[in-house]
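Workshop exercise sheet. Pairs work together: one partner reads the sequence aloud, the other fills in the structure field after running the prediction. Swap roles for the next sheet.
Pair: D.N. / O.F.
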Amino acid sequence: MTEPAPDSAPAPRRRLPPWLKKRLPHGGAVAQTRAILDELGLETVCRSAHCPNLPECFARHTATFMILGSRCTRNCRFCAVDHAAPDAVRDDEPEAVAEASARMKLRHVVVTSVTRDDLPDGGAGHFARVIRAVRSRLPEAVIEVLTPDFQGDRDALATVIEAEPAVFNHNVETVPRMYPALRPQADYGRSLDVLRWARQMAASRSRRIFTKSGLMVGCGERADELHAVFDDLRAAGCEILTIGQYLAPSGGHYPVDRFVPPEEFADHEAEARRRGFLAVASGPFVRSSYNAQSLFESI
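Structure field:
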C-alpha cells in the first residue's frame, strides 16, 4: 500500500459495504442521555470521535466519558478529536462524571481522556479523582479507564493504578509499521510498557486489575502483523482485546485501505482466543468501550 503524503488531497469517501450499515434506534432515550450530558457539561468520546455506535449506546443510557477537555495535544491521523490548544482542567469534573453515572444508573462506568502532554502528570491525578468520585457515588459499579500513555511516566501511571479501577485500558491501535503514518507522536513499545507496568503495579499492591487494549483494522496492516501484536500484548500481560473496523472521520483523515468482512473478524477473534485472552470482542462495529460491560461480564 502506498501511504499518502501529508499534503495530498483528501481521499474521496468510500461507499460502505452492507455489513457496515445499521438501523438507528427510535424513541426519546437518545435525547435523554444527551440532556444529562449537556446539563452537566460533560464530553464523551462517543460524540467527539464520531463513533458510529452513538445512537445505540445513548439509547441504552450508556456513554464513555471523556475528561480533561475536548482538545488533544497529539494529532493522530485516524482520530476525529480536535487537535488544538488544550482546555483548562475542570475542577468539578470528577463530581459531574459521578453525578451523570448515577443519573444514567450505570453499572459499568468507562472513562477516557484526550492526551494531555502539557500537564506534568499527563492528567493522571485527574483520572484518579474521577475514579474515586464515581466509586463514592456508585460503590458497586465497575470502573474502567482508557488512558493515554502518560509519555511513559511510571509515577503518573502509578497514580491511576493506586485509585484501583477494575479495568485498565490502553490502546495500541495498530501494528508497529503503521505508527509513523497513524500515530506519529506515540511509540508502540511504550504502549506495551504501559500495559505491562499497569499489570505489575496492580500485582505489587495485591490488587486484581484487568488489562485491556484495542486495535483497529482496515488501515493497511497484514494479518500476520496483527497476530504478532496479539503475541506482544499477551507477553505484556494484556487480558482483554477489542478489534474493530477503522472508519475515516473525514476526507482529510487517513484513508480506509479496506473494509474487513465479518468472517475475517471471526478469524482474528479465534486467533486471539488461542493466544489466551480472557475476553475478545472482534467485529466491524467494535470499539474500545462498545458493550464494555458485557465483555467484562463474560470473563
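Discussion prompt: The first helix runs from residue 29 to 39. What would you look at next?
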